[in-house]
């Protein structure tokens, strides 16, 4: 809690990587993220809410139960973890991170990755200490990966075409309609309708016309 309250993002990140638990509460029943938000250290809140340990992802690189093969090839764990832990959630940034890694920028690799993200999303929602923020983030990245697959399969310009579509502005005012529709679609497809975060997002977006 103390690094988060002090506003030191680097130390907060180091403690998280060292195994600090994000859901432990203090004497007044607040987590580190809640205390940091209370004192206005929103950068540290972002670090905590976006943290996902490599160990948790590596779980999917080993066969589980009756599986003969892991759900995620070891070679994809590093590139996927980099995207999962990014704090810049702009869709163009995520597509660029995919594009810059040849291991990721393939249909089969992205299919494996988005399925793992969907499993993590489900786990975040069904665990005892539900993490709606992380669940929504995993779902959002999964939706972008699925759209990447569509462009890789159907467009000659592949991911460059996806990036152009996301950046293209409407003629009359430059508004990025495709980008807005993609984000709205990902929110609409979030499978846990009872989630408080989802309801807040819907209430914020519903009155706004494209």
Give a verbal description of the structure.
This protein is mainly alpha-helical and 210 residues long. It folds into 2 domains: 1-50, Serine Threonine Protein Phosphatase 5, Tetratricopeptide repeat; 52-204, no CATH class. Helix content is 62%, strand content 0%. α2 (9-17) packs parallel to α4 (42-50), α3 packs antiparallel against α4 (42-50) and α8 packs antiparallel against α9 (132-154). The model has no long low-confidence stretch (mean pLDDT 88).
Structural shape = globular
Number of domains: 2
Q: Give the strand content.
A: under 5%
Number of strands: 0
Please summarize the sheet with the most strands.
none
Main attributes?
Ankyrin-MYND_dom_contain_2; Serine Threonine Protein Phosphatase 5, Tetratricopeptide repeat; 2 domains; ANKY2 protein; 12 helices; Ankyrin_rpt-contain_sf; 210 residues; mainly alpha; single chain
Write the layout of secondary structure elements.
Layout: H1 2-6, H2 9-17, H3 32-38, H4 42-50, H5 54-58, H6 74-84, H7 91-99, H8 107-126, H9 132-154, H10 158-167, H11 177-188, H12 196-205
Short overview:
The chain has twelve helices and no strands. By secondary structure, it is mainly α.
């Amino acid at each position: 809690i103390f690094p988060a309250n002090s506003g030191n993002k680097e130390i907060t990140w180091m403690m998280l990587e060292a195994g600090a638990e994000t859901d432990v509460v203090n004497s007044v029943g607040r987590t580190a993220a809640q205390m940091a938000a209370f004192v206005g250290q929103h950068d540290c809140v972002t670090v905590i809410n976006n943290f996902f340990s490599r160990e948790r992802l590596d779980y999917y690189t080993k066969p589980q139960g009756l599986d003969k093969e892991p759900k995620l090839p070891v070679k994809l764990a590093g590139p996927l973890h980099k995207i999962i832990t990014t704090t810049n959630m702009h869709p163009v940034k995520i597509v660029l991170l995919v594009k810059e890694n040849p291991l990721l920028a393939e249909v089969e690799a992205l299919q494996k990755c988005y399925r793992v993200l969907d499993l993590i999303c489900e786990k975040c929602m069904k665990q005892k200490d539900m993490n709606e923020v992380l669940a929504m983030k995993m779902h959002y990245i999964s939706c972008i990966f699925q759209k990447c697959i569509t462009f890789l399969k159907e467009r000659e310009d592949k991911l460059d075409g996806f990036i152009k579509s996301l950046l293209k502005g409407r003629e009359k005012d430059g508004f990025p309609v495709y980008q807005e529709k993609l984000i709205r679609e990902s929110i609409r497809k979030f499978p846990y309708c009872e989630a408080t975060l989802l309801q807040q997002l819907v209430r914020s977006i519903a009155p706004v016309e494209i």
